[in-house]
Amino acid sequence: MPHRQTLISTALALAVSAGIGTASAASLEQQRLGAYVQARVAEGDGAMQQAAQAYAQALSLDPASPDVASRAYRQAVLAGDKTLALKAARTLDDAGMLPPDGTVLLLAEAMERGKWKEARALVSRIEREGNFAFIVPFMQSWVSMKDGPYDPPVVPVDKPYAVFAVRYTEEQLLLQRLALGDAPGAADTYTQARARGTAFGPAQREAMAARFAALGRSDLATDLRADAVPAEGRCATTPQAFTPQSGLARLLARLALDLLGQGDARATLSLARLASFADPADDDARLLVARAAMIGDMHQSALAVLAGVEPCAPARFEAETLRLRAMVAEGNDTQAVALAREQARTGDARALRLLADVLVQTGDNAGAVDAYSRARAQMTDKDDPALLLQLAAALEQSGKWQEAKPLLEKVVERAPDSAAALNYLGYAMADRGEELPRAIALLERANRIAPKEPAFIDSLGWALFKAGQGDRALPLIENAVATAPGNAEINEHLGDILWAAGRRFEARAAWRAALVGLSDDADAKVRARVSRKIDVGPEAAPPAP
Which residue has the higher pLDDT, 144 or 28? Predict the structure, then answer.
């Protein structure tokens, strides 16, 4: 590995030059360089935990080094090492080099220690720095709750961050009213949030439910617990309190959720980690860290943080769902299926759906059909659109299109604005050459609802091609490829259309891109089909399943 060798060579050269001094000085310098090199190599390999440990040693040997502190801070945040992150942050702050999110970390730590005057000063500093200024009106309000007099959060309309911050006002006001015991105000804000479709995490729902129950609003507590773990399955522990730290954690978590799946996965993971630093007891923050880690293919990190969710906590089902997904992504299919089957023995609908999800991920669509069907039998709403779509997809993938199609029709009827359902039904019909005008109409609706989704653009292009409209199909598929250049299926479609247009050299290039885009565990038949097209073209290749 050239990168590793360069680091080691540089360190050795520096170590030799350091040996000009006294033996003890040289020995100390070698220790510093050794720890630093170990940290850099681990960082380069993506081993965040090992990198954080090595940077902790390097920083202890060279506590005033801004360079070591800067790298230690970032790795500590990514790895979830709060102690190291704070130590590095203080070093950087002393050097005037603390990044903006480091100021937020110092705010969380000041509030944890109950240093409200210090917290006020840090909130003002965050406003001056600008990057996280959207949290300022809320954190000023939370701090005033502790340091008095209390001022409800007000977002100044003349501030640059106003349009962004206003999105979080409702939730923050709800949490503060619950903290203050303002039952009527909290109930009113909750009703507004519910009407807007605000989604709360399982831990937050339980904390809010417990607080509403204590305030005499058992009706709202019941509403919040409607989809929760049954009471007999929950831990007999005190729910989360509503504190300034929890308010900050929610703000950071909301920002991370907004960014999830967009841009740099490490940036989103850093925000999620900061949320968990602000409120270490928040299981919803743990779930968010796990999701961010999995998007960045850091499955071991996801598994490690999910281990912190208690087996009977309100977030246990969501945690188990993510855990099994991470296990499958790591290639532990057999263990994941075994654990999912063990949970499904209770006959609980959610556990059965989780088993089915795992079976789909591992390629057992027939087993998934059985599990989804058993889950459906347990549900009050047996035509729940989300479940029907999952069941229909498993049936279609199992070769049972005639059973899948009426279920997909029912999903589209019950959820007419579901772009995913419209796309699935339209593409499945078009790929089979069925009712092509209607299939195109369904896919056009899906694209109007989600106009930038490459998979939906590809589906419409493919339907048009199947209908003999290659001239309309080609620019759509080219657009889809430009948006998702690594998608194997879209590249294969592009190759087929180009071949039909007589552009055979370009067609083969598209099929080669499709072959490269196939995952390591892709169906051997798919790989053989694409390879055959490269050799002799689509006419002699086996048809798509």
Answer: 144
Judgement on whether residues 167 and 277 belong to the same structural domain of the protein: yes
Which CATH number goes with the domain that contains 8? 1.25.40
Nearest to 388 by CA among 359, 362, 420: 420
Residue positions counted in the chain = 545
For tokens 């743990």, what's the residue? Answer: 286
Residue 187 scores a pLDDT above 90: yes
On whether both 90 and 39 belong to a single domain, the answer is yes
Q: Indicate if 169 and 285 belong to the same structural domain.
A: yes
Same domain, 116 and 81: no
Domain count, the chain: 5
- Please state, for a pLDDT cut of 90, what percent of the chain lies above it: 71
* Residue the block writes with tokens 């058992």: 218
Tell me the per-residue pLDDT of 324-365, one tens digit each, with 9 for 90 and over: 999 998 889 999 999 999 989 988 898 999 999 999 999 899
Q: Which of 330, 346, 363 is the last residue of a domain?
A: 330
Distance CA 207, CA 178 (A): 10
Position 542 pLDDT exceeds 70: no
pTM exceeding the 0.85 threshold for the entire prediction: no
More confident residue, 67 or 234: 67
pLDDT in tens, 36-65: 888 888 888 888 888 898 888 888 988 889
The four Cα atoms 252, 258, 262, 263 give a dihedral, to 10 degrees, of -40
E strand spans, 76-132 = none
Exposure class string for 388-404: b at 16+ Cβ within 10 A, else e: bbbbbbbbbbbeebeeb
pLDDT of 461 reads 96
CA distances from 489 to 292, 311, 363, 410, 516 (A): 26, 39, 17, 27, 11
320 and 202 in a common domain? yes
Both 307 and 347 in one domain: the answer is no
Q: Tell me, yes or no, whether 320 and 361 share the same domain.
A: no
* Residue of 507, 499, 412, 427 lying closest to 467 (CA atoms): 427
14: Cα within 13 Å, side-chain hemisphere: 15
Q: In this structure, how many other beta carbons lie within 10 angstroms of the beta carbon of residue 4?
A: 13
Of 220, 202, 200, 223, the residue nearest 212 (C-alpha): 220
Tell me which of 71, 98, 125 is where a domain ends. 98
Eight-class DSSP state of 364: -
Alpha helices, H only, 183-242? 183-195, 202-214, 218-224
- The packing angle between helices 316-329 and 349-361, to 10°, is 10
Tokens of 20: 């000009």
The domain of 402 spans 333-415
Q: Are residues 194 and 322 in the same domain?
A: yes
Token pair in block for residue 133: 């200024």
The CATH number of the domain holding residue 393 is: 1.25.40.10
Query: Rounded to the nearest 5 degrees, what angle is found at the Cα of 240, between the Cα atoms of 234 and 243?
Result: 175
Question: For the ranges 86-95, 222-231, 358-367, which has the lowest average pLDDT?
Answer: 222-231
